[in-house]
Amino acid sequence: QVDLVESGGGLVQPGGSLRLSCPASGRTSSNYAMGWFRQATGKEREFVAAIRWGSAYTYYADSVKGRFTISKDSAKHTVYLQMNSLIPEDTAIYYCAAGNRLILSTLRIWTSYDHWGQGTQVTVSS
Q1: Quick check: 104 pLDDT over 90?
Q2: pLDDT tens digits for range 77-88
Q3: N or C: which end of the chain has fewer CB within 10 A?
């Protein structure tokens, strides 16, 4: 069992920044990938970013590339999502997810992940 608890969401003005955190407890290894996804009201859940515990590679959706940064602290077993230059279109519930032995082609597919947090609301509005 893997438990994920997101935090750091909130209300921010356009152009502002937020940092989401996701500590992972339970049985995760270097084979696990950690992903951030988001779901806006009335829309499908979409990929935001991903990183593997056992690799330095990072992966981003085109819509957030250059604005968002995913990172990890292996000692704390925590994954972060630094979000800069936020725009109203970034408004959504953000979810942290963990998946075991995901190949590259499945990292961006939310159904590939086995474990999910409860989500944290991010609202970008003036």
Answers
A1: no
A2: 999 999 999 999
A3: N
Strand positions, DSSP E, 8-114: 10-12, 18-26, 32-39, 46-52, 58-60, 68-73, 78-83, 92-100
Q: Quick one: how far is CA 13 from the chain centroid?
A: 20
Phi, psi for 45 (deg, rounded to 5): -70, 135
Q: What are the CA-CA distances from residue 42 to residues 38, 45, 93 (Å)?
A: 12, 10, 12
Q: Max CA-CA distance within the chain?
A: 41
DSSP secondary structure string for all residues of 92-122: EEEEEEEEES--GGGTT-GGG--EE---EEE
Closest-CA residue to 117 (of 1, 4, 8): 4
What is the pLDDT, as a whole number, of residue 2?
87
Find where tokens 């509005």 sit: 125
**Per-residue pLDDT reduced to its tens digit, 11-56:** 999 999 999 999 998 877 888 999 999 999 999 999 999 999 888 8
